[in-house]
Each structure stands twice: as C-alpha cells, then as structure tokens.
C-alpha cells in the first residue's frame, strides 16, 4: 500500500515534524520553577487575550455564535460548563503555543478530545480556558500504521482504514474520541489478540508543560512512551498518535437480546467467555450489558459480538447463541459499517459510572446482579432512570500482549482473566444528581466489599469505567506509580499538568 495523505479542512498542519524543540511560546525549556498560581479569572484573562492576539478566529468567548455548542459538546450533560474562552487549535504548534501561554499566565485549562469522559471537570472547565480538538481531524494511512490527530473519533479512524481493509485497535462505539480512550488504555473488540489500544501505539507526539514538543516512542523518550500507555493526561497533550493497523477486511458480528429468564445463562456465558477467550488465535470481543427498566419491570441482557473474519455466525459466541433469545442477528461486515450504527451522541443524558474488577465467578456475579436490581427499585422514582449492569471482560491473553512486546504499560496487570463489572446509571434532572451519585457509590463499594471478603475482588480500576470518586492509580503496582511520578517530574517540572490542567484521573503526589 502506498502511503498517502488525507488532511481534513483546517487540519493541514496537524502533523509537523515529530520533534521540533521549543514551541512558539516564549518558555524557557530548562526552567524548573513551578508554574505560578494566580486566581482563575486573572489566569484566564491573560491566556485568552494572548491567544486572541495570535489566533483571533480560533478563540471563542461566551456570547459568540459557536460558544454554546462547543461548551456543551459532551456525552454527559453534567460535563457542560462555562469556560472563559474556548481555543480551537489547528496544529501541534498552536497547541504548544497555547500550553506555553497557560504556563506563563498561570491559567487553568481543560482539554477535550471526543468529550466522552463522563464527569464534570474531566474535560471542561468553569471560568478557565477550554482547549478543544475539533479543528484537528487529520490522518495519514501508512503501510501498517495510521497517524491520527486528536480530534478524530474511532469512527473516523475505521472509515479512514476501510478502503485498505485494515483495522485499528480502538473504541467499540462510534463517537468515542481517540485521545481519551488511547491514553487511559482502550478496550476494543480485539483485545484478546492485540491487547489494549495503548499497546498498539508506536509513537506519540507530545506537547510538554513548558510548550516544547517531543516524540515519545521505543527509541526516543522511551520512559515517557511507557508512561503514556495508561497514564492518561498527566504528562502532556498528545497531538498525534501513530497506531498499528492490521489486515481485517471483514468482521463477523452478532447482536443478541434476551429476556430476564436468560440472565443467569447470560452471566455464565460471559464468565466462560473471558476464560475461554485466552485463546487468542481469533480476535474477538463484545459489549455485554443488562438493562433494567424499573417502571415496566423488564430486564434485557444483550450482546454485541464482533470477531475478525467471515465465519457466520461468529464461532466465538456459541455459548450465547445457545441461549434462547428474543432477537439474534448475525452479519459479515466491516469495522466502519458496524460502527456506523453504534452512536453515543453528545448530550445523551446525565450519567455516572462506578466499577471494580473481579475474578470470574458466575454465581457471585449473578447475585451481584440481583442485589443491583433490587437496589434500582429504591430509586425507581428518579425521572429518566436508565440503569445498566455492564460486564467488560479482560482475558489473560489481552494482558499478555504488554508482557511480551518489550514495552509494557503502566497497569502491570497479572496475567489472568478478569471481569470489569460496571454500573452505568443515567437520569434526567440536575436535582437528582447527588442522590443518584451517592446511590451508585454506595452500591459499588458494597458489592466490591463482598468480593473482597470472598477473595474474588481485584484492585484494578479502569479509568474508562470508573467514577470520579475512584482512584485507578491505587490499583496499579506501587512501583509503576512511583516510576510515573518520576517521569512526570522529568517531563513536567513546572507542574503544568498537575497544577493547571483540570480533570481526568490525576496522579497524586
Ligand atoms: C458511551 C461510551 C462508550 C465507551 N466505550 C468504550 C470502549 O469501547 N472502550 C474503552 O476503552 N472505553 C470506552 N469508554 C470510555 C472512554 O474510553 C473514555 O471516556 C475516554 O476518556 C473517552 O475519550 P474522549 O477523547 O472521547 O474523551 P475526552 O472526554 O475528550 O477526554 C478524556 C480525558 O483525556 C484528556 N484528553 C483529551 N485529549 C487529550 C490529548 N490529546 N492529550 C492529553 N489529554 C487529552 C481530557 O482532558 C480528559 O481528561 C466509553 C465511554 C462512553 C461514555
């Protein structure tokens, strides 16, 4: 395949040289004095006005035409906030310039990729500067990799690769952003064979906290390269991801829905699947959910199953196919076509997550489901209540990829199958926020407490499934956390991403 270049509209300069030394900001790269702390308003006024001098058409203020649509471009309605200004860079140089200004002004800022991290302040900011990547949607398809700018969604990536019959290891729904998912780990349909999204990144172009740009890969800044594999937004802003791609002209898919009588068998099939899926000869994965409508009393287990190749129905899901269901559709298609119908639109609802991980045990997982269902009835009066019990699976083979690729990742997981169970709860009204959030938190910790006592609980918390009150770093090996802190000190001695950058899961001191 010949390399070619496709650059969308404004993003023509999204990819610059991979290592360009100092950015345009007048920051001294060798300075190690921590960023100044000024009040929110003063810092934002300084950064917004300086950005507007250089890039007036890329800075928007409250009251201007696009402000509201930008400030509300989030999946979780709770994440809508009121930034003092919004900067929409078109290139890595502009990102570097902005970060330099944030540091000199002491301006607090937030960063948004696909806008799917679902809690207020994780990707938006009240009174500070929001840097959003909507103008950086460039990509370049290479022989066995793709360069991706941080404004891309996974659907954009699958669409770009579709003409070449290739696939990248990324999100399972259409509109999730590439940057957030890749920086926290990344569960795809193909983890059993290819590991997590982060395990498939061969280079990151990064803007550091002093406005310099560096490349992080196996030979250049390898410590930063490792830290970015699961370390989230603690080290810099990534302006380009280079992802491995794999030949996958077709995928075989199954959509299956069941009713309440199938719940136990569905849970058993899920537990059997995570253990059996350690056979990584065929890449396959799933979205497994049980929704409960407390008003109608209906319970709906469902499976979205995907497998590489054309075997129809997909052979990896025989345990689910054997369960009598209300709806079963199999298809042979492409990653692009499959993702097309799996939208998770912006402003969907107010929604909170909570999760822990455990060794698979169908009887225990079933009793957790029963406890959850009974607890949902306690808040059944909440308007728009949309409770879902999610079963994410992490087979041992997914963990093995990082153990054998010579790079690793910050998770340091034990090579064993685990279930990452998650409670996802949506609702309509702000007045119910505290009630629902407290309900989720209490229930999640109650269930995890039982698993701790029966020896099934594991410490790992996935940032993509956890709630804002959870601390994923506490579940990583202590030596990895210590190493991440040293790397953060080396690459961000000013503390730009600790002191000024709002949101996400921050590595404490
Ligand atoms: C409906 C839904 C489905 C999901 N499905 C999956 C799934 O299939 N697999 C999976 O693994 N996870 C999944 N997740 C979790 C998802 O991966 C995370 O929410 C992820 O953070 C989303 O990335 P984003 O770019 O859309 O998010 P954003 O909210 O834009 O960003 C997330 C965090 O990353 C920071 N950030 C964004 N861009 C950059 C950058 N360029 N450099 C540095 N920091 C940056 C933000 O400041 C923020 O803190 C899902 C979430 C939702 C809501």
From TrEMBL:
The secretion signal range is: 1-16
Q: Give the highest taxon in the source lineage.
A: Eukaryota
Question: Where would I find the FAD-binding PCMH-type domain in this sequence?
Answer: 79-248
Q: Which GO terms describe its molecular function?
A: FAD binding; oxidoreductase activity
Q: Which UniProt keywords apply?
A: FAD, Flavoprotein, Oxidoreductase, Signal
The record's Pfam families line, in alphabetical order, gives: FAD_binding_4
InterPro entries documented for this protein? FAD-bd_PCMH, FAD-bd_PCMH-like_sf, FAD-bd_PCMH_sub2, FAD-linked_Oxidoreductase, Oxid_FAD_bind_N
Q: Which family does it belong to?
A: Belongs to the oxygen-dependent FAD-linked oxidoreductase family.
Official protein name in the record = FAD-binding PCMH-type domain-containing protein
To which species is this protein native? Aspergillus brasiliensis (strain CBS 101740 / IMI 381727 / IBT 21946)
């Amino acid at each position: 395949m010949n390399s070619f270049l496709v650059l969308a509209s404004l993003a023509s300069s999204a990819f610059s040289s991979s290592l360009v030394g100092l950015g345009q900001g007048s920051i001294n790269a060798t300075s190690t004095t921590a960023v100044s702390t000024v009040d929110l308003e003063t810092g934002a006024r300084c950064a917004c006005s300086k950005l507007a001098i250089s890039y007036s058409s890329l800075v928007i203020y409250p009251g201007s035409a696009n402000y509201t649509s930008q400030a509300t471009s989030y999946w979780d309605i709770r994440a809508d906030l009121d930034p003092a200004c919004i900067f929409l860079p078109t290139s890595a140089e502009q990102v570097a310039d902005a970060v330099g200004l944030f540091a000199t002004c002491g301006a607090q800022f937030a960063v948004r990729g696909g806008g799917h991290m679902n809690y207020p302040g994780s990707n938006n900011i009240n009174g500070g500067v929001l840097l959003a990547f909507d103008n950086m949607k460039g990509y370049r398809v290479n022989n066995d990799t793709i360069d991706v700018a941080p404004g891309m969604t996974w659907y954009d990536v699958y669409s770009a690769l579709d003409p070449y019959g290739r696939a990248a290891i990324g999100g399972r729904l259409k509109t999730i952003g590439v940057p957030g998912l890749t920086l926290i780990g990344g569960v795809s349909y193909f983890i059993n064979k290819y590991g997590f999204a982060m395990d498939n990144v061969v280079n990151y172009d990064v803007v550091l906290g002093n406005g310099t740009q560096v490349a992080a890969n196996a030979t250049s800044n390898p410590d930063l390269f490792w830290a970015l594999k699961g370390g989230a937004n603690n080290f810099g802003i990534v302006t380009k991801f280079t992802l491995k791609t794999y030949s996958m002209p077709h995928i075989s898919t199954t959509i299956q829905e069941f009713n309440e009588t199938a719940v136990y068998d569905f849970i058993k099939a899920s537990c059997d699947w995570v253990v059996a899926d350690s056979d990584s000869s065929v890449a396959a994965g799933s979205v497994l959910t049980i929704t409960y409508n407390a008003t109608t009393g209906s319970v709906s287990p469902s499976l979205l199953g995907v497998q590489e190749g054309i075997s129809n129905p997909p052979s990896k899901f025989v345990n689910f196919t054997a369960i009598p269901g209300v709806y079963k559709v199999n298809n042979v298609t492409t990653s692009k076509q499959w993702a097309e119908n799996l939208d998770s639109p912006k402003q969907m609802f107010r929604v909170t997550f909570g999760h822990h991980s455990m060794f698979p045990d169908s009887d225990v997982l079933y009793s957790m489901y029963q406890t959850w269902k009974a607890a949902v009835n306690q808040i059944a009066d909440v308007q728009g209540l949309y409770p879902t019990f999610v079963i994410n699976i992490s087979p041992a083979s997914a963990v093995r990829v990082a153990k054998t690729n010579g790079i690793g990742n910050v998770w340091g997981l034990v090579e064993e199958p685990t279930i990452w169970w998650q409670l996802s709860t949506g609702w309509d009204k702000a007045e119910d926020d505290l009630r629902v959030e407290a309900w989720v938190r209490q229930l999640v910790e109650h269930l995890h407490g039982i698993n701790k006592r029966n020896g099934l609980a594991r410490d790992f918390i996935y940032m993509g499934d956890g709630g804002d009150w959870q601390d994923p770093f506490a579940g990583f090996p202590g030596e990895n956390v210590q190493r991440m802190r040293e790397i953060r000190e080396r690459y961000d001695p000013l503390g730009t991403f600790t002191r000024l950058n709002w949101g996400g899961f921050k590595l404490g001191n």
